[in-house]
TrEMBL record:
Residues 4-175 form the Pvc16 N-terminal domain. Residues 187-200, 208-224 have a biased composition (Basic and acidic residues). This is Pvc16 N-terminal domain-containing protein. Residues 187-238 are annotated as: Disordered. InterPro entries: Pvc16_N. The lineage of its organism: Bacteria, Bacillati, Actinomycetota, Actinomycetes, Micromonosporales. It holds the Pfam family Pvc16_N.
């Protein structure tokens, strides 16, 4: 799921917010070593925190059906996680970095959620809204200054981008429908002779019963089951 969020943000920035600008987009930790290796103007999105939103945790499951109404699978409810990114601009001039941050802020603030067209993989399959918040003070125990200290760098202007995304729950696929019924096989311990017989058989629809009995079918049979020895269907009569 995390890599799918990365891919969605990359597409949103390169194809929308930063379209036409000669900028690279990276997802690296902005350490001193990374800064020294950088050779082109870059927008960096550093994923620094991942936490589950416990207020959105749900119990239960959802059933997936085929067009005929048969159960295909059972899906556990997804779990929701907040992914926090430290967004920074890296050029040779602070004024250019401020301009890039301004473009990012103006572009991202227009989106309350990641556009569905940017979603791939399980995020696209779940078809749930992936919310975006930009430049909102992080509700965490640690501040951004602590993050920069941990990275070994100097404090730098940045935007805090938080993506709330679902992680798909486990899936249990339904077993194939029983079509042959139950058979009992016995074998004589002395002679080795065996016998197999059917104990029960799944109920067949009317057309299949006619086909197996070899009875010519002249007209459609009513959908209701019929009583033995009679032609009146079981159920309320009009």
């Amino acid at each position: 799921m995390i890599d799918e969020v990365d891919a969605a943000l990359l597409a949103l920035l390169t194809e929308d917010t930063l379209a036409g600008m000669d900028l690279q987009v990276a997802f690296d930790a902005p350490t001193k070593d990374w800064t020294a290796r950088r050779t082109a103007p870059t927008v960096n999105l550093f994923l620094y925190d991942i936490q589950e939103d416990m207020s959105l945790r749900q119990q239960g499951f959802a059933l997936e059906h085929d067009p005929d109404g048969a159960v295909l699978a059972e899906h556990d409810a997804p779990r929701w996680f907040s992914l926090s990114y430290l967004v920074t601009a890296w050029t040779s001039r602070p004024q250019d970095e401020h301009r890039i941050l301004s473009v990012l802020l103006a572009g991202l603030i227009r989106h309350d959620a990641v556009p569905p067209a940017r979603l791939t993989g399980t995020l696209a399959e779940l078809a749930l809204p992936i919310s975006l918040t930009i430049a909102v003070p992080p509700m965490r125990d640690r501040g951004l200054a602590d993050i920069w200290t941990a990275l070994g760098g100097n404090l730098k202007p940045s935007l805090d981008l938080v993506v709330l995304a679902p992680l798909a729950g486990s899936t249990v696929r339904a077993a194939a429908a029983v079509t042959d019924g139950l058979r009992l096989t016995t074998r004589d311990a002395d002679t080795g002779a065996g016998e197999s017989r059917r104990l029960n058989q799944p109920e067949l629809d009317a057309q299949e019963q006619v086909r197996r009995m070899g009875v010519p079918r002249e007209r459609d049979l009513p959908g209701e089951r019929r009583r033995r020895g009679g032609s009146r269907p079981i159920g309320p009569q009009r």
